[in-house]
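Ticket #352: bound-state structure for nicotinamide-adenine-dinucleotide.
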Amino acid sequence: MRAIVKPTAGSGLEMVDLPIPECGPEDVLIQVKATSICGTDLHIARWDPWAETHVTPPLVIGHEMCGVVVDKGPKANGPDLGQLVSVESHVVCGRCRFCRTGKGHLCDNTQILGVDRDGVYAEYVAVPAINAWPDPPDMPLSIASLQENFGNAVHTVSVPSVSGRKVLVTGCGPVGVMAIATAKAMGARLVIASDISAYRLDMAKTMGADVTVDPSSQDLVAVVREMTDGEGVDVLLEMSGAPSAIDQGFRSLVRGGEAALLGLSSRSLEFDLDDNVIFKGATVHGIVGRRLWDTWYEMRGLLRSGAVDLGPVVTHRFALDDFERAFDLMASGECGKVVMFPDPADADGPLS
Ligand code: NAD
Ligand code: ZN
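RESOLUTION: The complex was predicted; output attached.
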């Protein structure tokens, strides 16, 4: 089968021919129909310091996907052959303290597809049956593929209380704009969004932001004050990892407010803890992955009810063979989600 691998430590990716993976006793074998690119895949392609310390080549990369179950191990409960499934990328142990207490997203033994074990940029992938999430058969493949990433947004929005409240989203990449739509669907009364890219601010508007701000030319904290009777927002959803956005976000937060942080800075940063958190009496939530499986049920509800429409988030489609162009586009930032199809005939929209 064709697969995209990180062949050796260093920058770059290669398409290679590999045997179809073996389906273990508790696994399902999935024929990949669509697979989307995430920022993590860019880190691995570029081989930045994060990738150097987290990834051991050779490795098939990629972790966002949907596909059809084509084989099952003898002990695999779960999806039937032929079922369309999305995949939860965190393979957890089910036995540690966290898994046993409903906090599988914090599992001691997490293995992430495409990071710690072979991933999904391939024609086939074998995963534990429990990781295969059944989708309605008529779900567009690009939406089914990006659900894993949507789950990051849904998890972040669902931890603080947004209903009836004023919310600031810093960073309008794919996860930020999906968080904007989710916050609106969950009843936020005002959503202010910041980004330094005009393309991304346009997407934020499309996905439901009431106000968009470019902090490189506007004073974000002043705009927030003006929009909130001088008080600040009740909730900060930090989706950029940019040190200046984190600082502006906390300075925009009302006293006693809640911040949910998903964006990764990838390094230590200087931060005014005294004024931004302690004297403000702020509550800070770190967000990792998706809650297993609460977040997936929440996503199902948001999508099936039509409360969130992820259609506009998918801006580009490519054949998997054309992965180099897909990665270049993703790196440019002039896109939303970029989805690749091992068989271009499966594409649910025009190919770029
Ligand atoms: P992305 O890189 O596409 O989006 C980040 C956005 O932040 C970009 O649009 C960028 O222009 C914007 N930005 C940069 N500097 C800014 C500033 N000063 N003010 C406002 N915006 C600024 O990333 P994404 O795929 O949307 O993911 C969002 C973040 O979440 C990333 O940092 C990613 O690494 C992280 N992430 C974390 C988890 C987790 O489990 N915690 C999971 C997935 C992604
Ligand atoms: Zn565990």
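RESOLUTION NOTES: The mean pLDDT is 97.
TICKET STATUS: resolved
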